Amino acid sequence: MYKDVIGIVGGMGSFATCDLFRRLIEAFPAEKEWDRPRIVIDNNCTMPSRVRAIIYKEERPKLVELLTESVINLRNMGCTKIILACNTSHVFLEEIYELYEKKTGNQNCNIMNMIEIIAESLHAQGIKKVALMATEGTMDSKIYDEYLSKYGIEVIPPKKEDYVEFRYLIECVKQNKVDEEAVNRFINSAENLGCRDVILGCTEFPVFLRYMSRMPNVNLHDPLEYLITKLKKELM
Fold first, then answer.
1. How confident is the model at residue 1, as a pLDDT?
2. Cβ distance 45 to 14 under 8 Å?
3. Which residue in 79, 86, 109, 172 is the catalytic one?
4. pTM (2 decimals)?
5. What is the mean pLDDT of residues 150-167?
6. 231 in a domain, yes or no?
7. Is 45 a catalytic residue?
8. What's the confidence (pLDDT) of residue 213?
9. Could you tell me if 67 and 129 lie in one domain?
10. For residues 102 and 135, is the Cβ–Cβ distance under 8 A?
11. Mean pLDDT throughout 155-164?
């Protein structure tokens, strides 16, 4: 029996959240269901756009309010490990921490910072340069640069024309329309970034991995995979 309860702030988007849930179940194999940790999901798909909140400051206070509300709800349900199932939402972490403390009087909301986790993990592997597949909001915020630069890791940004392809791929997952063409375009996008190591900096991108019949000629690094690995160690 696990004492910890995993909480997921999901819905950003919903199919990426489903994929994370499946992966968490697989990460804790068990003969009996009750031998797995409890997982609570708030699939809050009504949240405003994270990208538009960053680039255009559109509904940013409302977004932070809803993200914090989801965290509080999960904590009130006994969740001790909180996962934000969205890379871009990590841009608002400091605002979430501040509002959480204001509303609850507590400082520690137990959010696992997947960007900090992957930065530590890549450093441990001796990686010095990575390309980043991410939303325009994540890139504009430079949150990956902030964390990776602490370990001397250089981030190679995508070209402007890459964002059009990234948006197409993200929408394929959000609309549950991943087909062979989309998978091939995903592989080509990763290979064309000009770097041996590529971070999948949007939770929609790892969904493509289970549809692939061949791996790209680059090393794909999934922040959620590193987070799950750390979570398993902490819960064991």
1. 78
2. yes
3. 86
4. 0.95
5. 95
6. yes
7. no
8. 86
9. no
10. no
11. 93
Residue 144 inside a domain? The answer is yes
Determine, yes or no, domain membership for 25: yes
Q: Is 86 a catalytic residue?
A: yes
CB 25: neighbour CB atoms within 10 A? 14
pLDDT digits (tens, 9 = 90+) for 214-226: 888 999 999 999 9
Note whether residue 87 is domain-resident.
yes
Total domains in the chain come to 2
So what's the pLDDT on residue 134? 96
Active-site residue (options: 79, 109, 172, 202): 202
- Given a cut of 90, whether residue 236 has pLDDT beyond it is no
Domain match, 121 and 216 both? yes
The domain that holds 91 is classified in CATH as: 3.40.50.1860
